[in-house]
Amino acid sequence: MSKKIVIVGGVAAGPKVAARARRVMPDAEITVIEKSNIISYAGCGMPLYVSGHVRKLDELVSTSYGAIRNKDFFLNEKGVKVLTGTEALSIDRENKKVLMKDLATGVESYIEYDQLVLATGSTPINPPIEGLNLKKVFKLYHPDDAVALKEFLENADVEMPVIIGSGLIGMETADALVGKKLFPTVVELREQLLPGILDPEMAASLKTKLEDMGMEFALEHTVQKLEGDEDGNVTGIVTDKGTIDADMVLVAVGVRPNVELARKAGLTIGETGAIAVNEFMQTSDPDIYSAGDCVENTNIITGRKVFVPLASTANKQGRIVADNIAGKKSRFKGILGTAVLEIGGINIGRTGLSEQQALDAGFEIATAANANHDRTHYHNKHGQMILKIISDAKTGRLLGAQGLGKGDVIKRIDVLAAAITFGATLEDFYNIDLGYAPPFSTPIDMAAHTANTVRNKIDGLTASVSARELKEKLERGDDFVLLDVRTQQGYQSRHIEDKRGMLIPLHELRYRLSEIPKDKEIVVLCAMGGRSYEAACTLKGAGYNDVKYLETGFEGWPYDYD
């Protein structure tokens, strides 16, 4: 007798369960219940549709060979029955059936299951502020939202776009607007953009680069209400620090897991507020599985429960669920929270623990940030990047990494994610046999070079300061020497104007050591950190005991001191 598999949810995890289950269980009876009329769509591609990089919405619901993933596609190519426009209302666990409702007719009926899969996803958070129902206020979660936003942008004269929230959706939509020569103001409750993605100094560097493109940021602003005119159109955002004019608003302050169906069925809800599952993706009922944006995950490094909704995770979990329903005993081992995005041609990525997360987890950490080229400087496609690595100071174990720049950041983040997953140390990482040719890398890849920088700090070879730490030293009035080792030309292009500053180009340093006091702390800086590191080593070798260099140099310096 064939198994009856019922899947609630038809966006990412649900269709993946159905497709994999059909391959490994040819005789199974598989039904997908989906509230919307659009299924298996690429939600991550919606900002690209808004920007125009994806020309037709059908491209977000089609296969690589052009077939539209609708219910006929699933029935004809997968042998899977999909009930669109249908809502799952409740679960009768004792009798193993789901009460569902046809939203067009209002007719309710039951469907029986042997195994049930909850892939109910998540819902955008609507903050408790007045004015969200005004015209020209948008969200970007469902394809219908993307169509509405794109049509508005193509037909309206927008001059003052505002985005509330600087997470992934908010910043990816900002990128879509920049591509249309619209430069939004991003309003964020926290003190930095991309909170939870980047460490503060990385976010500050990114903010400076995006401001150079024309974007504006209102950080640490609490939105109180949205104002509108007599026609009901939004005209401004009122925050605790003033009013920001707006002729369109996108609200993107995060999502919450859809757990109500599971909660009503008496399934265990985890500490994060998402559905609790084991390594086999089973809920507290062994015949009910769950996957995707509605479940909590385990962080591979800390073992702690986390809620990090990502499409990549949802698809991987879908395969795991199908395998276990088929009796294959596949395990989902957890996540690192790897996330990547592009804004205005700047590639951004992170994996593993942030610096604060590592500290909160009880690690004694060593970190380093490095600015350099992604490939040989003489190759015409080279691009600059900033890469940061966080490690365990005692064992050298890799804990996390972040990067940004116009170079190939994502390649490095992916390689580091693999290394972290398998428990690599800084030394292990340096010894990975990475590919080299001038169009792709430098002889020692930037990621390996950054790992070596952390090792040098642990070994006591050199010390460094971050941009934030140097800024704090300047503001406190610390007594130190700020030694710039660039050429006169580089110094004139940009420098920190301060009475503690000195300019001695690196090629002159060995012959001018007598000009530098030995009884003071020396902080060395240059364009990207390479020359200042060399200078710090030279000074230390000459008997200077308190020498540090500025990590990432001016490439990562986001402050106005020049």
UniProtKB/TrEMBL annotation:
Residues 476-558 form the Rhodanese domain. Keywords: FAD, Flavoprotein, Oxidoreductase, Redox-active center. The keyword Lipid metabolism does not apply. Pfam families: Pyr_redox_2, Pyr_redox_dim, Rhodanese. CDD domains: RHOD. The keyword Disulfide bond does not apply. SMART domains: RHOD. Its cofactor is FAD. It comes from the Bacteria. InterPro entries: FAD-bd_OxRdtase (IPR050260), FAD/NAD-bd_sf (IPR036188), FAD/NAD-binding_dom (IPR023753), FAD/NAD-linked_Rdtase_dimer_sf (IPR016156), Pyr_nucl-diS_OxRdtase_dimer (IPR004099), Rhodanese-like_dom (IPR001763), Rhodanese-like_dom_sf (IPR036873). GO terms for molecular function: oxidoreductase activity. Belongs to the class-III pyridine nucleotide-disulfide oxidoreductase family. This is FAD-dependent pyridine nucleotide-disulphide oxidoreductase.
